[in-house]
Design goal:
This protein is α/β, with parallel strands linked by helices and 282 residues long. 37% of the residues lie in helices and 20% in strands.
Length: 282
């Protein structure tokens, strides 16, 4: 009986030793790798939306004054084919109107105002077209533009590239394009191969193998999908990792966490906080 207890104790100690050794080895193997960029990018998510109505020219002007690395812009298309800057499929959440963007002509859409409670003040401003936004900043800012399918079709890519060309902005130094749609990115790649493209993955839909084997140099992830291993693996394939944050309540904590993994870019709803956080790296 004593021998059996001794053998059992020996077996348990052996298992414990192997487990500790494996964990220690794994930690060494998973040491954080350097970022692919000198300084992580700060991308103003819908402009400085903490201080003015999201996706408005004023919000982007505030972001530009803060010295961000790019203005993050969501595109929708109107009934008559104009590209407007608004995130949601509908105008219900952010404007005085209701209904889908695609159901309105540009003139009809301009009859509504964006609204937001900023502090104790209700602020209003019209929905901008992409052309109005580009005309405001020209080549003084960098643009990080999100495309999407329109009713499942590739409809915004050609007018977008045409507008960028007319505005003399068709340059990797000035524009990056991001999308959850591979088809949209592939179309942009055909039309403007000089632009840098970011393949986005929604929360819960990230596939590391797909991301690593994609043709796109940037991978955009929701922060909860970001681990040291994921970042290291993507970096090993030469792909930048740009992180977005769905939960405003945990965004600061999550930015601190992913910063330790040397990610390459932050989509932020609090520019000043992110700037302070990244300044701590210097």
């Amino acid at each position: 009986m004593a021998m059996k207890r001794y053998l059992l104790l020996f077996a348990l100690l052996a298992i414990l030793f192997v487990t500790i050794a494996f964990i220690a080895f794994d930690e060494v193997e998973e040491a954080v790798e350097p970022s692919l960029v000198n300084t992580p990018g700060i991308f103003a998510h819908r402009g400085a939306n903490d201080r003015f109505n999201e996706s408005t020219i004023t919000a982007y002007q505030i972001a530009a004054e803060d010295g961000v690395d790019a203005l993050e812009i969501d595109l929708r298309m109107t009934k008559d084919g104009h590209l407007v800057v608004i995130h949601d499929e509908t105008i219900d959440r952010t404007t005085t109107g209701t209904g889908e963007v695609l159901d309105y002509t540009l003139d009809e859409l301009k009859s509504f105002q964006t609204i937001a409670d900023i502090g104790d003040e209700m602020t209003v401003e019209e929905i901008p077209t992409l052309k109005e936004l580009l005309d405001t900043f020209l080549d003084t800012e960098r643009y990080y533009i999100e495309t999407r399918l329109v009713n499942g079709e590739l409809r915004m890519e050609e007018p977008l590239i045409k507008l960028l060309k007319e505005s003399d902005l068709l340059s990797e130094e000035l524009v990056m394009i991001q999308s959850f749609s591979e088809k949209s990115l592939q179309k942009i790649q055909e039309l403007a191969p000089e632009l840098k493209l970011a393949f986005l993955f929604r929360k819960g839909e990230f596939n590391l193998e797909k991301a690593m084997s994609s043709d796109f140099p940037i991978i955009g992830l929701e922060s909860s999908e970001v681990t040291m291993r994921v970042v290291n693996e993507l970096h090993s394939e030469g792909k930048e990792v740009h992180v977005f944050f769905n939960d405003l309540d945990t965004q600061a904590e999550e930015q601190r966490r992913v910063k330790s993994f040397n990610v390459d870019g932050f989509f932020t709803d609090d520019i000043l906080f992110t700037k302070q956080l990244l300044n701590e790296m210097e």
